[in-house]
Write a structure and sequence with these properties.
Elements: H1 7-10, H2 31-43, H3 45-53, H4 58-79, H5 88-112, H6 118-125, H7 128-139, H8 147-164, H9 175-198, H10 206-228, H11 237-265, H12 267-270, H13 277-289, H14 296-311
Helix pairs in contact: 2-11, 2-13, 3-6, 3-11, 4-5, 4-10, 4-11, 5-9, 5-10, 6-9, 6-13, 7-8, 7-9, 7-14, 8-14
Length: about 325
């Protein structure tokens, strides 16, 4: 999931700028099939988080996810003979990036889904481009506002209010869980702005940087989890399988697919997967978990996605 990595990974233009240097296999499926697979993998991530938290504590879910995804990236690095980044300063910045882009948002989403539906978590994730646009206006001087983008920002947050049922006084809404999901979505653009300012142009490949970042995030959770959540007293097979799929597929394999898409069709087309994630997350939550669905959820989601699309528009002021 990154995160609108996770929307998230889709925003990694600076780290994926050198992705074309990654070796390609001779026979790969058509990019449209890989695009669809990526949409499904990330869309189902919120369902997998919900299932995982039914057997394990949120920090345990996040740690397991990070371990499995780090293993996938490590295997890919070994096959491609990639080396880890070098330099103490680079690793210091990777530690901050790992917290902002992985450890923090993954944990917040896991905690949020203890009390909110996976459908709502998926829609909250779609607000990342909105947060990113708002923050970039302040933090990135070269990213100046246009009327269309400002309108998109306003439209997107109107969609958020629609999803949350603001006209009903947010009745029946778990404020804490929703706030955690929105904070997780905010963490992604903060992380990518930090990466853009500190890690762009390091010379290391996108794969090695991401693999190192995930490994650091796994270490961060390995320290925190035993202190906060302890060790599981029993193994829950289905939640464990969900965590394994979440890590190995939802982040590990998904990132490898995304790298290939960026190399073949460019970052603009590749990041369009962000707009399919909440749709699939909503469908998965309703179909497989029996989560309720009112009219405001799909209508609000469409408004959010329309606003997010406008914030990515480029043109004259």
């Amino acid at each position: 999931m990154t995160t609108a990595a996770d929307t998230t990974a889709a925003a990694s233009a600076d780290l994926t700028a050198d992705v074309t240097a990654l070796p390609r296999t001779r026979r790969t499926p058509d990019w449209r099939l890989r695009f669809g697979a990526l949409s499904l993998i990330w869309g189902f991530s919120f369902l997998l988080i919900k299932v995982g938290t039914q057997g394990y504590a949120p920090f345990q879910v996040t740690l397991g996810r990070l371990v499995f995804e780090t293993a996938v990236l490590a295997a890919a690095m070994a096959v491609r003979r990639e080396r880890l980044p070098r330099g103490a300063r680079t690793w210091a910045h990777l530690t901050v990036a790992a917290f902002l882009l992985n450890a923090l948002p993954f944990s917040l989403f896991a905690y949020s889904e203890l009390t909110i539906p996976s459908t709502l978590a998926g829609i909250c994730n779609a607000t990342s481009p909105l947060w990113g646009m708002a923050l970039s206006l302040v933090a990135l001087s070269e990213d100046r506002p246009t009327r269309v983008r400002v309108a998109g920002l306003g439209l997107g947050f109107l969609g958020v209010l629609t999803v949350l049922g603001a006209w009903q006084g947010f009745q029946g809404l778990d404020a804490r869980g929703t706030a955690m999901a929105l904070l997780a979505s905010l963490s992604y653009p903060i992380g990518w702005i930090y990466v853009r300012r500190t890690l762009a142009g390091t010379g290391a490949s996108a794969l090695s940087m991401t693999g190192a970042q995930l490994g650091v995030a796994a270490l961060q959770l390995a320290v925190v989890t035993p202190l906060v959540a302890g060790v599981p007293d029993h193994l829950a097979p289905l939640p464990l399988l969900a965590i394994a799929a979440l890590g190995a597929l939802g982040t590990g394999l998904a990132l490898l697919i995304q790298y290939g898409l960026v190399a073949e069709v460019g970052p603009t087309t590749a990041q369009m997967v962000t707009y399919f994630i909440p749709v699939i997350a909503t469908g998965a939550g309703v179909a497989f978990l029996g989560e309720p669905l009112s009219w405001s959820t799909p209508v609000g989601a469409v408004i959010v996605l329309a606003g997010a699309a406008l914030t990515q528009a480029r043109g004259k002021h």
